[in-house]
Amino acid sequence: MTWAELFFDLVFVFAVTEVSTSLRDDQTWLGVVHAIVVFVPIYWVWVGTCVYANTHMVDTAVERLGIFTIALIGLFMALAVPDAYHGRGVLFAGSYVAARLVLLWLAKRGGKKAPITYLVAALVAGPLLLLGAFLPPLPRLLVWAAAGAVDLASSALGRRLLQRVQFAPGHLAERFGGFLIIALGESIVAIGAPAAAAKQLTAGTLGAVAAAFVLACALWWVYYVFAAVAVRHSLETSTTQGDIIRRVLSYGHLAFIGAVIAVAVGLAQAIAHPDVRLAAGAAGLLFGGSALYLATFGYTRWRMFRTVSRTRLSAAAAVVVLSPVSLFVPALAALSVLALVVVALNVVEHWMVRRAS
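RESULT FIELD:
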């Protein structure tokens, strides 16, 4: 991992914040769909640049400038997020097209053959986003959703070519794990910002901050203590490395990151009003995001090792079963119950690992 890549990631810290803010402003089902549809192109720009940096020497002046150019364009995309379905739609779509064209140019320099995912993004998904930018909000949403689906499907179209590419497993594992850290960082902001803005730090607020931080730590623990090593091992040993990159990294981490963003929005609401019951939207994001995060480990473990993650799927089911409770108790109590479930999962898995060793 180069310093240029880490600097590049700072733009996506801001992008995650903007997506999180848009979801905080509209916690309805439509708001969730709006957030997902704008996040997918942002995420796919990051994925494309990450894969490019993994397969090329990027520690030269030209490569650094190319990555910084994509970062600037990504910044424009992030700036467009708050009004992407209205006045800034063209900025959002045009920025995406520009980012994909720069990445395509970098990949084709020296007469090299560009991956099919880059071509599909630049020549199909990008024009679809531009077309949608000139439509009213609802048709725009539908066309942009189609563009996102095309992007996500493009790696499956290039599966055979992907299998021939030599990747650096350690680098990819670190990069995708790093993006998840960015999302978890948003949860820390969601914990601290409402508390800092409160007129008075009551015992309830401090208790909610503590419970939220325990939950964030527990979510971190689930991935970085147990799963991160497994992801790297799978990349290093799999005979179908390209499938692991596509299914576990590209798709699986999209779910991980999206889930954590949802949790962050729910946390902000719980911290702001710890003594009041959570609104249905906030409760759904907090508990639904946590359940999705835990359940995604079931998907990734099956894709990597063809084994069932019983502990994590059971924890996800427990979160779903307990979610209605959040509508009838104060936010602090709901948050504490959720944190307890994820902490219990980590304790059980720690005990299982020690027993097996």
